[in-house]
Design a protein that fits this description.
The protein has about 300 residues and is α+β, with helices and mostly antiparallel strands. Helices cover about 40% and strands about 15% of the residues. The strands form four sheets. A four-stranded mixed sheet has the order 2-1-4-3, with helices on one face. Strands 8-5-9 form a three-stranded antiparallel sheet.
Amino acid sequence: MGRQPNEVLILNHEGCFLDYGHPGYVRRLLREGRASVYSRSPFAIKMHRPSEPDLNGRQTMNQNPKMIVNFTKFFAGEPRDVYLQNLSDKQLSLQFELPGGAVESFLVPAVKDPINLSQHIPWQAIVNSTDLRRMSTKRPAILNLMNEDQYREYYANKAKRYEILTDDGKPDIEKAIEVAETKANLIRNHQPLPDAPDPKPIHDVVRDADGKQVAKPFEMAASEEICRPKILHLVNQVGNPKLEDKDRMPVKAFLEEVENLPNLTVDELEYILAHGYYKTVKKWAKAEMEKAVAAGASEGAEG
């Protein structure tokens, strides 16, 4: 149940997290009066009633038996592994009360890859966490509880997308999980990611209005008004002409980073297209721009 770029957050009729939907599908729900706009930032819609099969006969989200929408029901039954996905673009801190009264903090990194919370926190502490309950039942939710089937489905899709394959060419789910867990642990412990380029921006020396020499990151001066700093920094790790090929951020790592950024604008996608260096990155940015432009044109026509 991983989120794809440009997909819209959908809440059920009770205001709980339901799914993500393609902009075209979301526009149809709004047009048919089956949903209404719930929030603008982040953009989210809310279903008016329990979902029924849509016009194509597809079973909708509430009829999916794997969908987790109720905190109490999710934790009913025997102890088991609990999987957690951060739906926000910020790292989140959760508090858990351990046996004996001790309190442990746990940092959920600002990445969309779900984690196995049970590897870090005991079952009963998870069940009793008011932070976890509040963030997973918030409207819209910022944490998504997942069962094991959803968790493995997410990584099966990711392994296929990023060509993380077994020797016989099948998606290597365990390897994809291992890579994601390693990255999350490094982020949580404030350690540099392996094989990552120098995180400090590479600067050019330029002259300011008074003629003094100042250092500014590559492309920052011309682009800081249309792109968020995170995008400028990422593009600098692949598109800076001063970098040798061996020092550039790998294409898969770059795509994973930008796909995790919410609400990419046409200007930002255009910047990535112009300076993304890799053909795969430019192809991705072009496709996302076309989708964003088409969505904007459709919304304008409907308005």
